[in-house]
Each structure stands twice: as structure tokens, then as C-alpha cells.
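Protein 1 of 2
SEQ + STRUCT:
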Amino acid sequence: MTGRIASLLFGFLFIPVHIAYTIAFTHQLLRVHGTQQAELFMLLGVTGYLAWHVLLFEPSRLYVFGHEAIHAIMVWVTGGAVKEFKADAKQGSVKHKGGASGPVALAPYVVPFYSILLALGYAFAGMFTNVAAWVKWFFFGLGFTLTFHLVFTVKVLKEKQSDLEVWGRLISLGLIYWGNLSIIVLVMALVAPEIEILGYLREGGERTVALYQLILNQLFSL
């Protein structure tokens, strides 16, 4: 009971952070003027996945595999060992020993597995051949896979997820929101030179401090 109350308290304390970075995210989007080829192909990828999801079928098996793969990777990254890996069309599981429970639980909701696979594949191919002619299709794939990740993340979060209980639902949802916001900025910075990752982080940090100062001033002026 005490842990749940503490989790709720910390969750509420982080709300100004999410507000600040949402404003910073919006300002970065407003910096983009015109549409270049890379941006166009990324938008086509976004549209392509949405059409696939709505008109054809939902690739649930692919999502579940990627979701559990990120769980497993984070177990290894944080010093644990994977004992069992399961993934089918509806659900999956990773049994492990050790590893940081919080990052392991939340990573799949933030890290776009197939976008990373695509980027690694593109970089690997670039070591052996000239991939410049394929760059527009890389951005198409980036838009497609990132949208796939975001759509399924929203979908599964509508259901009860035990992963969110590790750090508490409110804190977890806040971290997932901030993480995906930052991933979108990072990906868009690849195609839109107007978007600045450091500018986004700096503005978000400054606005967070300003919001906390405003709240404290209001509390102590009562």
C-alpha cells in the first residue's frame, strides 16, 4: 500500500516534465517548413502502415516477437540471463534471471525494434555497397516501422499490462510517453534539418525547471 502511494506521488511529481517536453516537442515540429524528399517518403511510410493496419490485417505476431525480443535484449544489457523465450500471435514471455527489472519491463514500449533492425541493416549494407540510391526507401521503412511500433504500443497499453506494475502505472506511462516523444524527435531529426535534438532536450529541461519553480512559488505564497 505504501509503495503504491509513493508510486502515485512520484507519478504526479513528474507530470510537469511531460508537459514541458510536450511543449518542446511541439516547438520542434513548428520549426519544419516545406517537405523534402526524405520527409515525403517517411510520411508515405507512416500512411502505408496505417493503411495496412486498417485495410489488411494487424501484424500481431510480428509485434509480439519484437516486444519480447526487446525484453530479452534489455535483460542481457542490464547483466541478466534469458532462460526462456516465447512469442506467438497473441502473447509472449521472457523468463530471465537478474537484469534491471524496470528497464527490462518498460523498454519494449519505448524502443522500436524493427526500426532499429532496419537502421542496422542499412548501415551494414553501406559497409559493402553504395546505398545512396536506397536512402528514400530507408526513410519509407523508418516511417512504416515507427508507426507500427507506436500503433501497437497504444493498443497494448489499453489492456492491463503487468510490466507497468514494476514502477507503478502512472510513472511507467509517463516514462513511456516521454520516451516515445523523444524517439520521434530523434527519427524526425534524420529527415528534417530544422529539428534539433539538443534544442528539444534543452528547452524541455528549462521549461521543467520553470514549471517546478512556478508550482513552488504558488504553494509557498498561499
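Protein 2 of 2
SEQ + STRUCT:
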Amino acid sequence: MALIFSLSAECGFESEKAKNLANYFNQISWQLSNGINSECHAEIFQDSEDNCWTRVCPTGVTQVGITTPEDAYSLTEIAILLYQHLRSIPSFRYALVGVEVDEFRTYSELITGASQFCRKPKI
């Protein structure tokens, strides 16, 4: 079974923002410190709440999870590169990078969960 390493960025109900983000990442490629060339392949999808997402899958990474220190280093390097690109792109609500992160949490789950953690304790 393949494990997918990706960046998933949630853009709310605005499909145009998700398309623009996918177009941006489809033009990105790197040469990693280990010499492997990696290029991004992006697509859009909707979650169970009809929020629009962009999923970015870089090539040249493990698809069986982290089994060696080299895998961990490569995935960390790519994650940092992906996050660096996100810093200059304001067209998303939140993003996650990792293995199998699609629909890890929907926006409403995050908002609901955040309000539960921010409540003052009853005395």
C-alpha cells in the first residue's frame, strides 16, 4: 500500500483560489541535497463540507513511509521547501504537510476544536 506524502491546502469555498494554487505548485521543482530531482504535481478536490483543496505531491520521495534516516531527511527537506513557498501565497485558509494529510481535519472541526481548547476552566 502506498503512503502519500503531500501538502494539502484548504481554500474554503473558492475553487478559483485552489486552481491558482495548483497552477503555482505545478511549476515548482527542486534538486534535493541528496541529488534527487523532485517536481510538484498538484490537483484540486473538495472535502465532505465542499471546501476546495489543493493537494501537492512531490516526486522522488518514499511511498512506503519513513523507513530510513534518509527518508526522514528527504521528507523534512521537501516539507520545508513546500512551507517556504506557502509563506508568499495568501490564497488559502490553512495547510498541512505530511503523510496522508488529506482531510485530516475540516475547517469546521478545527474551529470547533479550537474553541474547546480556549475555554476558561470552570472554578
